Amino acid sequence: MEKILFLKALLIGLSIAAPVGPVGLLCIQRTLMHGPRIGFVSGLGAASADAVYGAVGAFGLAAVTHFFVALATPLALCGAFFLSWMGIRMLFARPAGEAAVAVDTMRPHRAFASVFALTLTNPMTILSFVAVFASISGNAAVGGGDAGIMVLGIGCGSALWWLTLALGISVVRHKIDQGTMRRINQLAGLFLIGFALWQLFGLWR
């Protein structure tokens, strides 16, 4: 029973992480720019945020859920500005061969923290986790042991996706020349800015 529950949660973690959005795009760009370690650590930031929201949903923490939902607008606003800032940085990012610094100048803790914060700025994710866990258990609040297994499965599933993505992208990383890398940075930056504008438009509407 515990193994089945863990596998279900693992698949949930994979399904939540797999769609390519701003976080996925950011991890791909960082893998190409800084290598698979930074790309994977960035993904772990997203996986950790998923686990936090997953814990809220699994343990049925209604008060915490309402707290984050109440902050949905300011958090989304912060997330939009954060996306814009990272997008602008990407637009002017220089490939490693052109830069005066080494490829791995981005510190792992900064890579982790930035994506963790970015993922947490989407508090409506809590409602998704609550709905999913309710469908699995028949109730949003489950036993402590089962809830722990579900959160662990969510985190492992999400981390597995980011590891697979970072390793897959690293295979083609060394085949990309500086001109192509520059264009990838610019395109990724424009997409992040586009995501930010779309989020701001959604808030305004």
TrEMBL record:
Q: How does it sit in the membrane?
A: Multi-pass membrane protein
What does the UniProt entry say about where the protein is found? Cell membrane
Q: Which InterPro entries match?
A: LeuE-type (IPR001123)
Its main localization is membrane
Transmembrane is among the record's keywords: yes
A Gene Ontology cellular component where this protein is annotated is: plasma membrane
Q: Which GO terms describe its molecular function?
A: amino acid transmembrane transporter activity
Q: Which keywords does this chain's UniProt record carry?
A: Cell membrane, Membrane, Transmembrane, Transmembrane helix
Q: Which residues cross the membrane?
A: 6-28, 40-61, 67-92, 112-136, 148-172, 184-204
UniProt name for this protein: LysE type translocator family protein
Query: Which species is the source of this protein?
Result: Collimonas arenae
Q: What is the lineage of its organism?
A: Bacteria, Pseudomonadati, Pseudomonadota, Betaproteobacteria, Burkholderiales
